[in-house]
Amino acid sequence: MLKKIQIIVNVAASTNFGERYDDALGINTFGALNVLNFGKKCDEVKLFLHISTAYVGGEETGIILEKGENLKRRNDINIFEEKRLAEELLSQLQNQCIPDKAITSSMKEFGLERAKMNGWPNTYVFTKAMGEMLLGKFKGDLPLVIIRPTIIASTYKQPFPGWIEGVRTMDVVLVNYGKGKLTCFPGNLNSALDVIPVDMVVNAMVVAMEVHYAQHQYSCETIYHVGTSSKNPLKLSDLRNLVHYYFTKNPWIDTNGQKVEVGKLIVVSTINRFFLYMKIKYVLPLKVFYLINILCCQRFEKIYTNLNRRVKFILRLAEFYKPYSFFTGIFDDRNLERLQRVAEERGVDLAEFNFDSRSIDWEDYIMNSHIPGLLNQGLL
User: Fold this and answer.
1) Which Pfam families does the protein's record reference (predicted)?
2) Candidate list 21, 55, 124, 224, residue with the active-site label
């Protein structure tokens, strides 16, 4: 195997925003380094392709270039010290003989704490950023290509429109809105929600492999943003309107066989206003209901528990997704443009391997592919 492998592709990742810190480090950070070290042992390897995320730079603004400089300015992070801290905390928790569930909760909280302390919004992007740092530092002469996709959504065309597995990222918000469980959310209606169909990401990967394998430039490092904010932005206001229109025409059917009516999602312009809105409309009334439940000998316990769980879920969802619903950065994709030109010159069929975001008709994609695919495939 070591004498035959010529291209190595690393797509392994934990995409859970609040993953256990030890697990996220093991997969997103040191997992990438382990694959790199394996690649350096291969005699014929000519390319290492790594899949990262466009948000490794944290909550940036303005034009975000396809370069590693947005990480280099934070190279004071001691990544091996982060690993030691995670291992030390885990050992302490295990020595206390506390339940596994409590250990998991503590490790998740520690990951978010370390991420925010170092300037990243969540454990996922923090550990992916550290993974990129390690690859840049230890790649040696191995040509490195990093694909940084934005928010990945269902397929645009291949293998068929709307294909998706599971419910993640923005789809959690869409599904809960359609079910009538989410009526408000924080966000900037004028900002672009940078969404990219997954098949376009895969096509960019395939074309990058073909082009860079042929060029075989030693020691080079190339970064590609695969997204839509630069060439074909989807405004949060447009997405809200499309989703409202879809669920008005195709209402969710609840467990009782009743159609769920939804109003237009209330988008609150600041996170503080959102939390104030939630406090006045839900949290305080829920506290009153809690007292009523006690006075009525827990008669409404089940109702209270369900409402409390729902409110906590919405608050947690808002906390996790606020970096993206308020994101104002635009991901420059000039490297990706050059890749398209070189691929075309080499005779690559860019109609078959399409990753041009300008080809996306957002209304058609959201209404006829993404939401139907999400409901039919993602919720299976």
Assistant:
1) NAD_binding_4, Sterile
2) 124
Candidate list 128, 139, 157, 322, residue with the active-site label: 128
For residue 196, with 0-12 CB atoms within 10 Å meaning exposed, 13-18 middle and 19 or more buried, which class applies? buried
C-alpha to C-alpha distance for 28 and 306, rounded to whole angstroms: 35
C-beta atoms surrounding 51 within 10 Å: 20
Answer yes or no: 128 catalytic: yes
| Separation CA 39–CA 144 (nearest Å) | 11
Q: How many CB atoms lie within 10 A of CB 335?
A: 17
**SS3 letters across 130-194:** HHHHHHHHHCCCCCEEEEEECEEECCCCCCCCCCCCCCCCHHHHHHHHHCCCCCEEECCCCCECC
Told to judge if 177 belongs to the known catalytic residues of this protein, a careful annotator would answer no
% of the chain beyond a pLDDT of 70: 97
Q: Are 146 and 57 in contact (CB under 8 A)?
A: no
Alpha helices in the chain (DSSP H): 21-24, 30-40, 69-72, 79-95, 100-117, 123-138, 170-178, 198-215, 236-249, 271-278, 284-295, 301-325, 334-345, 362-365, 371-373
| Cα distance from N-terminal residue to C-terminal residue, the chain | 38
Strand 184-186 and strand 266-268: pairing?
parallel
Asked whether the bond before 143 is cis by omega within 30 degrees of 0, the reply is no
Are 335 and 225 within 8 A, CB to CB?
yes
Contact 118, 77 (CB under 8 A): yes
370 — pLDDT class (breaks 50, 70, 90): very high
